[in-house]
Amino acid sequence: MAIVTLRNVSLAYGDGQILADASLTLDKGQKIGVVGRNGEGKSTLLKIIAGRIAPDRGEVQIREELRIMLLEQDPDIEDRATVYDHVASGFGKAGNLLAEYRHLVRDPEPDPETLEKTRILQNELTDIDGWGLHGIIDAMIGTLSLEPAVPMASLSGGSLKRAAIARALVSEPDVLLLDEPTNHLDLASILWLEKQVGQFSGTVLFVTHDREFLDRLATDIVELDRGMLTVWPGNYHQYRERKAALAEAEDRRNREFDRQLAREERWIREGIKARRTRNEGRVRRLLEMRRLRAERRVRPGSVRLELEQHERTGKRVIEARNISYAIDARPIIENFSVRIVRGDRIGLIGPNGIGKSTLLNLLLKTLEPDCGTVRHGTRIQSARFDQFRTELEGDRTVVDTVGQGRESITVNGRSRHIISYLSDFLFTSRRAMSPVSSLSGGERAQVLLALLFSKPVNLLAMDEPTNDLDTDTLELLEELLLDFQGTLLLVTHDRRFMDNVVTSTLGFEGNGRIREYVGGYSDWLRQTDGKSRGNSAGTPDPGSGDREAQGPMPRPVARKRTKPSYREQQELKQLPERIETLENRQQELSELVSSSDFYRQERERIREVNRELAEVEAELERCFERWSELESRFA
């Protein structure tokens, strides 16, 4: 039975058509995933259904007394609201009265005016039967590991999102509208949300880039494409298969139509004799074909991602030995060692605030450990995805943000005009001149990628790169990272993205302990078998910020160092240059051995080159071991 109906709805912003005579019906109990390119208007569609935005034309019919709750991508937060206030507001007037009453009764020295307000609120809450809501609100807040009295303004991104989810779910609405609900959530929170949405008896319409979330929950997919809404029965995987087949058929029809149109255009342009004999019906058909061709909605192109790769690093990229880091005696990282070599793609798994970003900072040497050493190899050129978020200033245009005052940039040795470069990220010349503040969340993410990929890099650290990207761009980013010849450190809550990209994972197991596992998220899940999963993926205790590793321990004391001899000091100073020379020779020999003509030479020459390559690699290994030994002894 239809509970929400959109009929021939149209909406435009300036020259941009968001919806064009679009129609959609929501039935009771449906769970519908909304997909579409960044900037297509997915969030706008949810706001139209929620009554936040009125369409230019068309009808929006909502069944009488239907309760609709919208979880926005970036919800507005009252400056002085606490977590309890925010969650309680999900009940509307009754919840707001309850929150106000809670503030009044906590006043240790109430004046007569406060006492009178409290009495009035008591009566109002009794009249509307609002007292029973308190237990429901408290239970929901506790379930999501939040503290009711904490100000919303002080919460991290993950805690803010959990509070917003609690507000959306607490009143059990008839229709739940979720806009990117998994953004900023850790893996355990996503699994919990999946369960809640799966058990929800009402109707759910949700926008998400999380393909696993889509596949597990969606009974139908609604695609927003060039202003039109199309319903596809089934989950995301089934939608992708059917969509590909339909796109191929559409291309075939368009090619045949264009051939027919070209034939008719040639006929109408023939000489005087042809014009005398032409029939009016054929002319009318030609005019109709011209109209149809002009109205054809061109399928938008794909984002073209190209990463500017710096020269190759040495074989060893990062080596961390016995590093520890604590805040107020709480261990974040405890006696952790890892060796990262060129080509590694490593994912970090753990709850929000447990220290994943801290570990990235330690490994990138932007943060000093309390004890232990972090050593980088040679020719490292690093970049970090989230470092560019601060450059997204609202008043600056996309061109100014990415070009930074330049008209052209150099990518992989080619000079490109900034507008041309931005077109790879689907920004038209007009859109590229728009202020960043006017962009959708997905478009902002694409600006971040444009910034990142314009810089030469061979060590890439990506902290939640999938937030707000559309699924097509996500899959292209996966392909790019798989082709990336450098080294990748990845923090993401996107399970499928991690499965498809990384070769190993570092799982945070609490109390500063970190273990390395082979494979992606699914492999980690299988290897842990639930033994350490609670700490690695679970939701941390509330309000502990970046200090969630539990159990205070004394800060580790660094080992005493022996004073190095002069000879050893000189050896340590000369080793990096020696290693670089060996790596250059190793690269030359490797390229020689890999050439197609190499094995056409005499056997003795082949043996000589292979022998030298083996000797260089052995010497390189010895130099690395010696460098590590000297640094660990005298750092």
Description:
This protein has 635 residues and is an alpha/beta fold. The protein contains 22 helices and 20 strands. The strands form 5 sheets. It has a 6-stranded mixed β-sheet, with helices on both faces. The protein has a 6-stranded mixed β-sheet with strand order 14-17-18-12-19-20, with helices on both faces. Strands 2-1-4 form a 3-stranded antiparallel β-sheet, covered by helices on one side. Strand 6 (175-179), helix 7 (187-199) and strand 7 (203-207) form a beta-alpha-beta unit. The longest helix has 33 residues, at 236-268. Residues 540-562 have low confidence and may be disordered.
Secondary-structure blueprint of this entry?
Layout: E1 2-13, E2 16-27, E3 31-35, H1 42-49, E4 57-62, E5 68-71, H2 83-88, H3 93-105, H4 112-127, H5 133-143, H6 157-170, E6 175-179, H7 187-199, E7 203-207, H8 211-217, E8 220-225, E9 228-233, H9 236-268, H10 272-277, H11 280-295, E10 316-327, E11 330-341, E12 345-349, H12 356-363, E13 371-376, E14 382-384, H13 398-403, E15 408-411, E16 414-417, H14 418-423, H15 429-432, H16 441-453, E17 459-463, H17 471-483, E18 487-491, H18 495-501, E19 504-508, E20 514-518, H19 521-528, H20 533-537, H21 566-594, H22 603-634
Parallel strand pairs: 3-7, 3-8, 5-6, 6-7, 12-18, 12-19, 14-17, 17-18
Antiparallel strand pairs: 1-2, 1-4, 8-9, 10-11, 10-13, 15-16, 19-20
Helix pairs in contact: 3-4, 5-6, 9-11, 21-22
